[in-house]
Amino acid sequence: FAILAFMFLNASFPHWNPRMDIMGARPLAATGRNEKLKTSSIIYFVISHPSCIETEKAARATWARNIKATWARNVNLLWFSTEATFPDTVVVSVEPNTYMNILPRVLKVWAEVYMRQRYDWYIRIWPDNYVFSERLERLLAEYDPSVPQVIGRLDTNQNGETYVSGGAGWAVSRAALEAWDAHHGPSFENCRKPHWLEENLEFAEDVIISNCLNSSGVKLVERRDVFRSHYPGHEDNNDLTAQEAADGIPVPIVTLHYMTANMMLDVWNKEKNDTFEGNIIRRIFGLLTTSILG
């Protein structure tokens, strides 16, 4: 009975950690620029806005819960917005706080994250992304954070310039941030719109920052197979259902974009039910098979 009870708990709560309540509440500490890097460290940070409060609520209630449960493994999560919409929101504001003026706000967030503490990987997310953090962390284990690289979904603009699409999320290595810092300053204030980008596209922060990173010697890595720029069922994702996204079969999707609050809850419930029911059935089946064969 004890063995069955342990297997039930292990199957039902795969993210449970008895130290989580102790380790999870530790704040990020400001550290020196030359502090020895902790291994396998990851920071997720969400750049939100008061207009996105409903999707942010859904994100906090769904995929973000998995990240919080992994804090004891030196994985952290920060939420940024122009207003203190939640108690843990880090306020970063520029004037005017408009979409057309998003670039300086995003650069300010990057600088804030970079100066707080050094990590192996920096994961930039929007509030309407859905993140499968365990899959993403397994993916990152295949790459070296000491190599300057940005992993995501690559696109090409009308000038033929390649950039990492902002909507699908970015995974930026420690070495990439160091190279960006060295070439554009610790606040990244010298990251400017390139001359070839039209004036009315100054809001294209993904194109502009990709150009700054690329000019700093950072490699742009194509992984559009798992970084998805739309929700399941969209014409760009017509090969993917919400259940397949939740299961990670046949493709281990790591991000989705343009997710509504209801879409997030739908995928989360499918993930949760698969974990709760599927794992229990698999464990019991495995136990019975072992008993019969033994």
In short:
The protein is of the alpha/beta class and 294 residues long. Helices cover 39% and strands 14% of the residues.
Sequence of strands across the biggest β-sheet:
3-2-1-4-9-6-10
The rounded distance between the terminal residues' Cα atoms is: 18 Å
Work out the helix count: 10
Shape: globular
Give the topology string: H per helix, E per strand.
HHEHHEEHEEHEEEEHHEHEH
Instruction: Kindly provide the radius of gyration, computed on alpha-carbon positions and rounded to a whole number of angstroms.
Output: 20 Å
Q: What structural class do helix, strand and pairing data support?
A: alpha/beta
Rounded average pLDDT: 81
Number of distinct beta strands: 11
- As residue ranges, the low-confidence spans are 2-39
How would you characterize the largest beta sheet?
7 strands, mixed
Give the fraction of residues assigned to helices.
25-40%
DSSP strand (E) fraction?
A: 5-15%
Walkthrough of the structure:
- By secondary structure, this protein is an alpha/beta fold.
- Helix content is 39%, strand content 14%.
- It has helices spanning 2-12, 20-23, 53-61, 63-68, 102-116, 133-140, 174-184, 205-215, 242-247, 261-293, and strands spanning 42-47, 75-81, 90-91, 121-125, 130-131, 149-152, 154-156, 162-164, 170-173, 219-222, 255-256.
- A hairpin with a 5-residue loop joins strand 7 and strand 8 (162-164).
- The longest helix is centred in the last third of the chain and has 33 residues, at 261-293.
- The radius of gyration is 20 Å and the shape is globular.
